[in-house]
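hi! just following up on the protien thing from before. the input was this:
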Amino acid sequence: MSYIDDLRANEYVREKDLGDGVSSFNFTRKAFFKGIWDDQTIHARGLFTKNGEVYARSYDKFFAVDERPETKLKTLAKNLEYPVYCYRKENGFLGILSCHNGKPFFASKTTNQGEFAENFKRIFYKSTSEEGRKYLYDMLEQLNASAVFEVIDPINDPHIVEYKEEHVVLLNVMKNDFNCPTFWDSINEELSSKCGIPCKSLDYICEDEQTFLDWYKSALEEKDIEGYVCEDSNCFMFKVKNNWYKYWKRMRSVIQAIASERYSPEAIKQRYRLNKDDESLFNFMLEYVPVYIDRNLKVPDIITVRNAYYNHSSIL
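and the predicted 3d structure came back as:
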């Protein structure tokens, strides 16, 4: 059996036919919520194939600190191969770009069709020159590689972190291969210069276990960013998400619960572990969210609610 046969045989992997012989493979929601991570589900994340070969790809699935046995903090700190490189985690959606026969292939996590892929392409074109795009397309085709981007779209797809302008950030260029991909970090700066787009920001280097533990403690207390993607010297990757981000992500779920009108305020408090420190914000949400929906015919995003709350609080 080929590796594609293994993917197709795995009940926790979904194949999507995109036409022209191209398929995407992604782990299912059931795999995600049940934590079913094996050789296929780990690889099936933004993976596109054609004629039995990788056509475009993103990173393998990787995990946050304490999310898996191997990423429990103490185990992780002891087993990492130092130095560990800590890159700022931008808060957008995934964009994947490859090039074949002179034709660029733009995709999001599961497809090259629909609003996410189209918005990725639009923002990428807006952010680059024709000369820069040609340089990147030629390089990707020559290397048989994919470029992976974080796509920031504050108008159509606001997340938790507030951004003023839409843009793309180059994360990595990697070999189109089923196995652990080759990263070409060394060409990120070259591509950034040639294409006029920013690349991921290396914010910290942890030289040993104690340095890492000290840095991790301080990273949890940072605000206004999502966190970090870390790579050790053996290319083992993991995520660090700070307390500020996790708090506002939980509050985003509170907004959805209020908007659904399926839960009483007391039920929402219990479901999302709200305490006295959350009382002022929660009471504001209970009033603000229904009024916003009535006026705008849509549920407000968390950034809109957060800014409205801070402005409201400053007036009180």
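The radius of gyration is 21 Å.
The first strand starts at residue 13 and ends at 19.
cheers
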